[in-house]
Amino acid sequence: MIELNSLTKKYSNGKGIFNVSFQVKNGEVFGFLGPNGAGKTTTIRHLMGFVNSTNGSASISGLDCWTDAAKIQRQLGYVPGEIAFFNHLTGMQFLKFISDMRGIDNKKLQDSLIERFELDSGRKIRKMSKGMKQKVGLIAAFMHDPAVIILDEPTSGLDPLMQRKFVELINEERNRGKTILMSSHLFGEVDQSCERVAIIREGKIVAVEDITTLKASLKKRFFITFEHKRDIEKVKMSGLDYTVSDVNKVEIVINGNYNEMLKALANCNVTSIDASTQTLEEIFMRYYGKEGN
Ligand SMILES: Nc1ncnc2c1ncn2[C@@H]1O[C@H](COP(=O)(O)OP(=O)(O)OP(=O)(O)O)[C@@H](O)[C@H]1O
């Protein structure tokens, strides 16, 4: 549905995106994560046909993002990272302007989105906060019920309640078969809404991951205290992945093999066990850091 093949844009300062390739399948909600300046907006602007690539190509529903840009822009739902509006219009006037441009009567859906996001649509855009403008952008992107939606940092400026409403909307749209690509800094948002995620760093894709597979691979960490330090020796001989954190304390990392740990601990005198589960954020942070190389 959305396809990028070795998409490359090299700016004169050497920055940009390099050989970016991934596919978003029909009906998939796909996350696009990366630190500041990684290349998310540059990639998305290519998909919208605002800039031409130095190399490579991108297409949406078989249409080339550069040569068929006008057609793509008419059909798609799009929220830009920074929304530049017609400041003299009210929210409602702006939404009407966009509807007229698309030639679609979508008043019913528009009104339900205004209600959902509690937008004061009579207010002049120049008097709106960043979050309010973001709501106008979201309503404009969704109100013509597009099959493909591209969102660049859609929740920036939204308060936690509105962020939750946004996640609900995405999940409803997914159930209705929509194809959605959204860039984000927020791991929680990606975790709650996306099936797969691509991670970009310094202009290059460093990973494309399946969220369900990632969740299944999350490790559990057990913090165990023994009454006697000699019990540490039993853990050492068990073959478990362990770290000794004090004379009578160990940390054991497990991915599913609980029985091995229980067997090893059965002959020990355990005085306390605490556990924590690795988070998706910890996994993503690895890609953000130096190890992303
Ligand atoms: N027109 C331009 N000319 C030169 N360099 C540019 C231009 N536009 C973007 N860049 C550079 O390209 C890199 C990618 O920028 P981009 O805006 O795509 O990142 P981003 O991942 O969207 O970041 P953020 O999360 O901060 O919005 C950055 O180093 C940026 O400074």
UniProtKB/TrEMBL annotation:
Name of the featured protein: ABC-2 type transport system ATP-binding protein
Domain ABC transporter: 2-227
Entry annotated with the keyword Nucleotide-binding: yes
Source domain of life: Bacteria
Magnesium found in the keyword field: no
Pfam families: ABC_tran
MF terms in GO: ATP binding; ATP hydrolysis activity
InterPro entries for this protein: AAA+_ATPase, ABC_transporter-like_ATP-bd, ABC_transporter-like_CS, ABC_transporter_ATP-binding, P-loop_NTPase
Protein family: Belongs to the ABC transporter superfamily.
Keyword line: ATP-binding, Nucleotide-binding, Transport
